[in-house]
């Protein structure tokens, strides 16, 4: 993209945070998209480690058959809270953090459209996070019926269930406010000349993700509101005793839930689609088809929800419909994978850490997509539902998909955000440890699932022992490797070799026309995009 | 390459867009609740959720409530269907429920009876209500209960044991692919502590 910067702030505006208050008040009251993006990213990193610690306990317990460290009731709390916090506390906020930092920089806008709203969207998160973590300490312990919150289990627990409903409500409100901000910013505040079809793909994926959020977060709010009134106010939406139907909850939940998984992967697609061209030193192959592929994935995500419910007793017609629509999603997804590969074709590729993570993403996410296709087949799913095969599937798409794309993005933009280069040697070490440990952890879970090991159990039959031991060793290594990530990020934030404005020679989006770190108020005069 | 600032971008109003987005959010929220009646209507039309045709007027379940017909004369002796019985007691009800008939092999069209033994484990008189569910769901519309303890609330004195009968017919129209049907009962407590059940009792 050719850009002519008519922006006089970039060079000589030293970022002395002129009228911003200092210290804690700066962060509490900040309406600056860079500050808020930073807050989002730190918050999600903290939650990532918290939920990761729960996973470490899960894997320790599953290292060998029998009950070792935790009682079954506690084990159920661990799996439930691990899932809930990873999804709502780690993956989603970190992607919003990326949006905050990058969307204004990439479209040449001075800030987000509603800066004050932006401050609110963030500061709701620590409140919700605290509530969620606090539930471990209330009578009866944290929620334990699975992150999907299915009744009738969800009707029977103690106060933690009501607190968690409140927390998820708060998280939902925060997501909706964030989505509004992102949509208005992208639609209204692009620099002159930046038409929709000139927007960087990351911006496109976030625009579509924000529409998904606006459409489905209210549906989740409905579902959990009905749970709340069923629990406390004598309604019987899901209570069979009063003529309600627990299966209905699953329909409402997954009507939100499936688009939700795309909310977590589409921005990751955007990050990878930004990084691959940079290090292949070629423009993204098939930009237009990428945009249409993302849009059609988003559309299809609304009509596949019952593939999570094949075993609830559906007529053949329903099973076939949801099977075929689910398999249809493989087409736009395949287009994306082919375009990524074609972008690499004959490029002059170099393998810096962000590129390594992105390449691993392409391969490992595709494996997760394939196991998803396997699960889409009704007769197969009836065998595999609620086994470790599902656990393997969603970790390939969520960890090696979303989480590794997020790490790629962090390495890619850290030099811009901090002005320092991260430690490349350590970054590469972190990559190899993560990629190898990830596969040691989760690849054997495919075999466990095929052999029939159910998920969400603290103890298991002896024939599953070997693969579980392997997975646990991998899991603990994977968890430990992430401490290296924390170290690298902190080290880079504190200092390091100056990055220069353009640390990646192949990068051509607008943020690279600014200094590193960018001035506190950037693009006060919009750049001109040709 | 002209460096004149491009003013062709229309000045857009944040406010207008915000209002539109808020409308979308309100719609989505309303849609979430609209799913409830939609779901009931859908199940009523298709009979998919395994709710059997309870005697009209007794439970008012959202399933199909067709009037009970007389036993058809035609018995389909060409095939055998297995019916399995299950009984559970929901939390809060200190009862015990065991199907005395665990399963029956029958020809569609035959009049059959199954027995359940229910015992009150507490030292109080308690009222309970059984809710049936048939799977696969599509079999429910062909599972006709002529007489059932689930048609009314059941009262058990302290320590009392009662054998409760169910008389039913699996209609010959049952789909040929269905060879096994499971009928599961869940007993719910009917007292003030369970508002939902109280609600049910008052209907
Ligand atoms: C250090 C990395 C991780 C390890 C070792 C790990 C391990 C596990 C284990 C052992 C389970 C429980 C399986 C069961 O019995 O049901 C689980 C569940 C789950 N994980 Fe992870 N996980 C990791 C990272 C992630 C990430 C990054 C996500 C992203 C969102 C994630 C999302 C989930 C979800 C949604 C569940 C299902 C929870 C439930 O169904 O109750 N995990 N994970
Ligand atoms: Cu899905």
From TrEMBL, chain A:
Q: Which NCBIfam families match?
A: CtaD_CoxA (TIGR02891)
Q: What is the annotated localization of this protein?
A: Cell membrane; Membrane
Q: Sorted alphabetically, which PROSITE patterns does this protein's record hold?
A: COX1 (PS50855), COX1_CUB (PS00077)
The record's section on CDD domains has: Cyt_c_Oxidase_I
Q: Which family does it belong to?
A: Belongs to the heme-copper respiratory oxidase family.
- Catalytic activity from the UniProt record: 4 Fe(II)-[cytochrome c] + O2 + 8 H(+)(in) = 4 Fe(III)-[cytochrome c] + 2 H2O + 4 H(+)(out)
Instruction: Give the stretches traversing the membrane.
Output: 39-60, 80-101, 122-143, 163-189, 201-228, 261-280, 287-308, 320-342, 354-378, 390-414, 426-447, 467-490
Please state what the protein is called: Cytochrome c oxidase subunit 1
Q: Which domain of life is it from?
A: Bacteria
Outline what the protein does: Cytochrome c oxidase is the component of the respiratory chain that catalyzes the reduction of oxygen to water. Subunits 1-3 form the functional core of the enzyme complex. CO I is the catalytic subunit of the enzyme. Electrons originating in cytochrome c are transferred via the copper A center of subunit 2 and heme A of subunit 1 to the bimetallic center formed by heme A3 and copper B.
Q: Which organism is it from?
A: Candidatus Propionivibrio dominans
Gene for this protein?
ctaD
Q: Give the GO terms filed under biological process for this record.
A: aerobic respiration; electron transport coupled proton transport; respiratory electron transport chain
Task: Name the EC number(s).
Answer: 7.1.1.9
Automatic annotation (TrEMBL), chain B:
Specify the species: Candidatus Propionivibrio dominans
The record's similarity note reads:
Belongs to the COX11/CtaG family.
Query: What is the name listed in the Swiss-Prot or TrEMBL entry for this protein?
Result: Cytochrome c oxidase assembly protein CtaG
Sorted alphabetically, which InterPro entries does this protein's record hold? Answer: CtaG/Cox11_dom_sf, Cyt_c_oxidase_assmbl_CtaG
User: Can you cite an annotated GO cellular component?
Assistant: plasma membrane
* Keyword terms, alphabetized: Copper, Membrane, Signal-anchor, Transmembrane, Transmembrane helix
The upper taxonomy is: Bacteria, Pseudomonadati, Pseudomonadota, Betaproteobacteria, Rhodocyclales
**What PANTHER family does the record point to?**
CYTOCHROME C OXIDASE ASSEMBLY PROTEIN COX11, MITOCHONDRIAL-RELATED, CYTOCHROME C OXIDASE ASSEMBLY PROTEIN COX11-RELATED
Where do transmembrane segments lie in this chain?
A: 21-39
Q: What is its main location?
A: membrane
